[in-house]
Amino acid sequence: MGGSSFQGKVVLVVGATGGIGAALVHQLLAAGARVIAAARSPERLAMLVSETGQSPQLLVCPTDVRDRLQVGHLLAWAWGRVERIDLAIYCAGIEYLGPLTSIDGKELEEMMATNFYGLFFLVQQLLPLMDKQKEKGTIVWVSSPMARLAFPWASVYAASKAAGDALMTGLRRECWRSGLRLLTLYPGPTATRAGQQLPPERLPRWHEQGQKMRAGRCAELLLRAIAAGQRQRAVTMPLRLLFLLERWLPALSERLCAGMPL
Ligand SMILES: NC(=O)c1ccc[n+]([C@@H]2O[C@H](COP(=O)([O-])OP(=O)(O)OC[C@H]3O[C@@H](n4cnc5c(N)ncnc54)[C@H](OP(=O)(O)O)[C@@H]3O)[C@@H](O)[C@H]2O)c1
Q: Where is the Ketoreductase domain positioned along the sequence (predicted)?
């Protein structure tokens, strides 16, 4: 992705109906991109279409990323219509929090399948397509600060996100000479539906307290990092400081993370 503009680019947004994903779609359309939006709920996708005033630049395809075949269908369907994907943003995610003993098998599977397998299904099937393009594409993994900081009551969610981080790092090294670009971005706390399906006793206070940015602001920061081609980037300054602390003063970071209010 060159320079600061998404004008004329074909962008796939997976997880396009959530707080951050929908804001990305709106901003990409406003920047002149052609957008293919995917998520499970056809109703929410229809709402997205109507919010954009039925933009002819927006195509939607209901997809469950936990299913390899559905991800393959999404890519074949998109390719059949636009014959290239300049940028793919994997923003689908699900978050179950709570003490480790409260996470049941279904939640574990759902987090691993949505946050990690789905990413794998996407990149594995997208790479050969992007490889055919004259101008190679960019794949963006919307990770979470939890992948690096793992606050208490978020350990399994953190593990599912950290798996995605490792996949992207390894793949970036594997594709080093290919011209494909693989970026891992870390949004800061953002006000969305994420985690809101949980009963209050499983929502840690650190999740609810503190300032959350608007989804539109988060999308703006993500698009700025993408346009700048930042390989691995925490999009807010407080997060960058926390990552520095984790790297250079791990004992202090450990105490800080362990002390997050529950
Ligand atoms: N909000 C934050 O503070 C924050 C912070 C750091 C990182 N993140 C990450 O940012 C991403 C977006 O989060 P958000 O806060 O915008 O969450 P959100 O509002 O809950 O949106 C999640 C999106 O993922 C889609 N999705 C969930 N399961 C799916 C599946 N199986 N197949 C396809 N799509 C699926 C949802 O649509 P359907 O339900 O219709 O499928 C929705 O579009 C997530 O990866 C999250 O981990 C969020």
A: 9-192
- Please tell me the pTM assigned to this model: 0.97
Place of tokens 């450990």: 254
Contact call for residues 137 and 88 (beta carbons, < 8 A): yes
* Residue 190, domain member (yes or no): yes
Q: Which residue's CA is the nearest one to ligand 1's atom 22? A: 18
Residue 2 domain-assigned (yes or no): no
Q: Which domain holds residue 125?
A: 10-258
204 domain-assigned: yes
- CATH number (domain holding residue 94): 3.40.50.720
Task: Name the token pair of 254.
Answer: 């450990």
User: Does 187 sit in the ligand 1 pocket, CB within 6 Å?
Assistant: yes
Please choose, from the candidates 17, 2, 24, the residue with its C-alpha nearest in 3D space to the C-alpha of residue 223. Answer: 24
Task: Give the residue-averaged pLDDT of 25-31.
Answer: 98
**Average per-residue pLDDT for the chain:** 95
**What's the gap in Å between 81 CA and the centre of ligand 1?**
25
What DSSP string runs through 23-76?
A: HHHHHHHHTT-EEEEEES-HHHHHHHHHHTTS-TTEEEEE--TT-HHHHHHHHH
